[in-house]
Amino acid sequence: QAHDGVNKASNPNARTVEVLEEMGKYYDQTAHTWRSVAYRKAIASLRKQPHKITTQEEAARLPFVGKRLAAKIEEIVWTNSLRRLDNARLEPSDYALQTFLNIYGVGFSQASRWVSQGHKTLTDLSANAHLTDNQKIGIAHYADFLARIPRAEVEQLSAIVQAALRNIDPSFRAIIMGSYRRGAADSGDIDLIITAPAAPTQRIRATVCEVLVPALFALGFLKATLATTSKDTGSKWHGACALPNSSIWRRIDLLLVPDTELGAALIYFTGNDIFNRSIRLLASRKGMRLNQRGLYADVVRGKGREKIAQGRLVEGSSERAIFEALGVPWREPEMRVC
Ligand code: DCP
Ligand code: MG
Ligand code: MN
User: Which residues constitute the catalytic centre (predicted)?
Assistant: First the structure.
């Protein structure tokens, strides 16, 4: 920015340029790339003007200066600053909200409650807010849980679960799902379906919750339990794990699936979430209903399309057969990115 010093005294629009540059820097930092580019072009254009630009109309005639930027230029000239810039400086609450939303298990209502209570940083929260055990874990492993997991590490972590499962009952399988199955180079967490031929959900749950999970804790692989669905109806186990000798905790999600539901669960847990929404919408347009357990027909819906009766199971066990029953051409997991 050497040109600043050179131009400052002589350029009639120096002060305006200076304020706009600060604004552009703010957009740079907040990753509003498109806006920061627009600012840079407008600044270059303004810098070339031999006279001081003082009104919105004059500014709007310059190349690369749109209506809104023109209004800002006029405001800077008359007030020597920009309200939006002061707002930008005053917006740490946005950063706080963003920070809090990135804590595992924290949703919008909790995050905004903390912001309105005046909390600004994670350190703040740890010291002054009343936190649940999960929130404490989420904060302690904030960076860990935000980091992407390389594909090779997803495989290493899954292999540990698969080996433990083989020891317990060789008929059990752990299938790597989520973004990994879609072919992603890295993943946000490890998603595994745990299934076994001809085993009812109850038996799979008993094996996972009473044998596999304790064994993996004993091994030091599992680090924390974060969420499980209620004892008898549940089919999910969420927690954290780590490679031996690694201090980085990774999020791991287990979905317990009887083979009668495996096809529907494969579709659900492969995603992505947008793909799931669109294929479910398509099912409902055809008078059917797709969820993580199966594809159902003769679903009775009320006026608001709300479901009144569950309907008859069309297909649950085969992923391909569900596509066929829906009349949708087969899509490889890698292509299920919307
Ligand atoms: N899923 C869904 N709707 C949600 C959450 C999840 O349909 N609200 C399904 C689709 C996801 C799959 O479960 O692909 C796994 O969920 P994840 O949150 O683990 O997402 P991904 O594995 O797709 O991505 P990431 O790499 O971020 O974990
Ligand atoms: Mg995932
Ligand atoms: Mn997941």
Answer: 72 (nucleophile)
Q: Cα-Cα-Cα-Cα dihedral of 286, 291, 296, 302, to 10°?
A: -70
Low-confidence residues of the chain: pLDDT under 70: 1-9, 30-31, 83-93, 230-234
Confirm if 308 and 302 have CB atoms less than 8 A apart: yes
Nearest ligand (C-alpha, residue 267):
1
Structural tokens at position 195: 């299934």
* 3 state DSSP class of 258: strand
Q: Report which residue type is found at 40.
A: R
Ligand 1 binding site (Cβ under 6 Å of any ligand atom): 178-179, 184, 187-189, 191, 253, 268-269, 271-273, 276
**ipTM summary value:** 0.99
Neighbour count for residue 24 (Cβ, 10 Å)? 20
Q: Which residues pair with 313 in a beta bridge?
A: 296
Q: How far apart are CA 338 and CA 327, in angstroms?
A: 19
Supply the angle between the helices 14-29 and 2-10 in degrees, to the nearest 10: 150
Q: What element of type H or E holds 55?
A: none
Give 180 Cα–ligand 1 centroid separation in angstroms.
10
Closest CA to ligand 1's atom 15 = 178
pLDDT of residue 136: 97
Q: How far apart are CA 201 and CA 258, in angstroms?
A: 5
pTM of the model: 0.74
| DSSP, res 293 | S
- CA diameter of the chain: 83
